[in-house]
Amino acid sequence: MLPFIAKRLLLMVPTLLIISVVGFIIIQAPPGDFVSSYVAALQKQGDVIDPELITGLRARFGLDQPLHIQYWRWVSNFAQGNLGYSMSLRQPVADIILERLPFSVTISLLSLILVYVIGIPVGILSATRQYSLADYTATIISFLGVATPSFLLALVMLWLLFVWTGNAQLGLYSMEMQNAPFSLAKMLDLLNHIWLPALIVGIGGTAGLIRTMRANLLDELPKPYVTVARARGVGPTKLLYKYPLRIAINPVISTVGYTLPDLIEGEVLVSLVLGLPTLAPILLRALLQQDMWLASSVIMIQAILVLIGTLLSDILLAIVDPRIRGSV
Amino acid sequence: MSSTHPIGTPVQDPALPADTLLSVRNLQTHFFSREGTVKAVDGVTFDVKQGEILGIAGESGCGKSVTSQSIMRILPKNAKIVGGEILYNHQGQVIDLTAVDPNGRVIRAIRGKEISMIFQEPMSAFSPVHTIGNQIIETIRIHQPMSKAEAREQAIEMLHRVGMPNPGRNIDQYTFNLSGGMRQRAMVALALSCRPKLLIADEPTTAVDVTIQAQILKLLREIQADLGMAIIMITHDLGVIAELTDRVMIMYLGKEVEYGSVENLFHRPKHPYTRGLLASIPKMAPGRIEIEPIEGSVPSPYALPTGCKFHPRCRDFMRGVCEVSEPPLIPIAPGHEVSCYLYGGREERA
Questions:
Q1: A139, A278: one domain
Q2: In terms of CB atoms within 10 Å, which of A31, A311, B121, B247 comes out highest?
Q3: CA distance B59 to chain A (A)
């Protein structure tokens, strides 16, 4: 097990390097750089810009260097924990990420929990009562859930909540709590707001998981080992939970890693619609303004989180499935 | 075999002779699907005495496995016992297994403890994510109040008995760690872990190669002599029947066609189907191998022939008789019964 984890951790290094190169190139792909989009914005307001100031700015941010030098400066600093300086927000990238990452992670984790807490039991119910009213209901709802884009769902929910309660469920805190110091009341206020984005982000995944769980379990239920267990006198509860469910759940565990990018992507759109102080709006802004240190760093952080999630799900799978444990 | 209960007559007296462990009477198990009803087992009657080995033979689809699943009440959802009785002698008390709840306590206390089963495919018979020991110990502890350690001891002892090379280690292995022969031995150990009174072996040697097949049969014979349980041996292989069993029931399309001692059946086969089966075993004649297959093929279960189910393939087909009504099971010698109009039974027709 330990050599397996060590191997996987080592493999992360080249993976992250490739992601950093690809990410950096894509961020740099649009014509111009931060200074040109900054200047364009100023010029729009009628300002006259001294060309020397432009060159000065470029030199200050190192944007006059060739691309590979810029990349190397960023990546070598990133590896040492120095995430650089956001040109557009005029503060260190690390501060911005530290302020917003916890919200992103909390929303993603809450959605993940929601996906499993709802998806697994409903999937089991659907499979064990195949072609019942409950199964058909779950099937219809899960098809709708898979097919509805999360941003649309966010808009609809926002509207519905506004109609019902008269409150716009925007942001993560109520107005009066926005700038209040940290307290239990503020915590509760956060919980009162964060369930909505978590629910919306999780709904697609939940619907998908219901389908997967149902299909996997229906595959396992008629297998000989279940009949044999029945023929040994095993009771109905154990007959479901100890044997087929245990095996049907393996692919579900192994796909936790693949669910994470979906959740992060969903969180981006939902955060924009609901105006949440997460990483997503910052990333979008950084991309539009070509604030490349900020954009690259946010993308790298997300990549690292996804890789860690994948590794955790692989470790979990090796723990629950001896067939995989034997081969790692 | 109780010739006092020919097919179709209701059982008057549910009591069983003390030496009879199981009495299946006029069992009918049908499968229901959109395509129609399949009468997988359609009126089968036989007895199993304490400690005897009964063979049930026939081609695939003849209903031999469904018979065993009916006894264990582990039929698939779309199958139903629609008639007959399965009387089981449970410590002097006779229980009709067709009448108990298939998920209830009564049958669960019998499964694995009183009647247990060996399946065809040992690889898929064990859960791939649990050790074989886990499943054997579980079975023991369902039926006997004992600690994990005691159950483990008993499991190791049983693995030793079935000839596992290293029981102390094998108990913690998974099926994918074991060879085919070892897996089938583990399956036998699992089935015998609670010392059942009746072991149903459903094609136990079909999925293993010939050398292992011989080993498994030898093992079953030894263990039967050792523990004295009764065995129902279900197979399509007449060689296995000849080697292991005392009495045989031949089935064709859910019907019992002939029933008797191994000796009678192999030396004095009566039913044209039994004769055909025996003739289709390759025989070594000087210089060549002779095989005489049965003409035609098994008809679709959705469109069964009228009258005797075997008549379209029968060499001795009698027009105006065989396709008209089903021949009853008639005794032709003590302990030897056949269901064929060649041997009478026509006068019994209404």
A1: yes
A2: B247
A3: 21
Give tens-digit pLDDT for A115-162.
999 999 999 999 999 999 999 999 999 999 889 888 899 999 889 988
Same domain, A30 and A135: no
Q: Which of B116, B125, B174 sits opposite A224 (nearest CB)?
A: B125
CATH code, domain with A284:
1.10.3720.10
Do residue A40 and residue A109 come from a single domain? Answer: no
Kindly state whether residue A90 falls inside one of the protein's structural domains. no
Residues 6+ apart with CB under 8 A from A281: A271, A272, A275
Segment-wise mean pLDDT, segments of 10 residues, chain B, 350 residues: 38 70 95 91 93 92 92 93 93 88 92 93 90 96 95 95 93 92 92 94 86 89 91 92 93 94 93 91 74 83 89 90 90 92 73
* Binary contact (A227, B119; C-beta < 8 A): yes
How many residues make up chain A in this entry? 328
ipTM greater than 0.90: no
pTM of the model: 0.80
By Cβ distance, the residue of B76, B112, B176 closest to A231 is B112
Tens of pLDDT, residue by residue over A187-216, are: 888 888 888 899 998 998 899 899 999 999
In this structure, the answer to whether residues A62 and A127 fall within a common structural domain is: no
Do A190 and A228 share a domain, yes or no? yes
Total domains in the fold of chain A: 2
Is the CB of A233 less than 8 angstroms away from the CB of B190?
Answer: no
- Structural domain containing residue A24: 19-82
Question: Can you say how many angstroms the Cα of residue A35 is from the centroid of all Cα atoms in its chain?
Answer: 31
In a domain, A5, yes or no: no
| CA B264 – CA A23 distance, rounded (Å) | 83
Tokens coding A221: 């239920």
Q: Does residue A166 sit within a domain? A: yes
Q: Among positive and negative, which fits the CA dihedral B173, B175, B180, B183?
A: positive
Structural domain includes residue A12: no
> B74: distance to nearest CA of chain A, Å?
7
Q: Name residue B199's amino acid.
A: L
CA of A311 to nearest chain B CA: how many angstroms apart?
21
SS3 B1: coil
Q: What is the DSSP letter of B111?
A: B
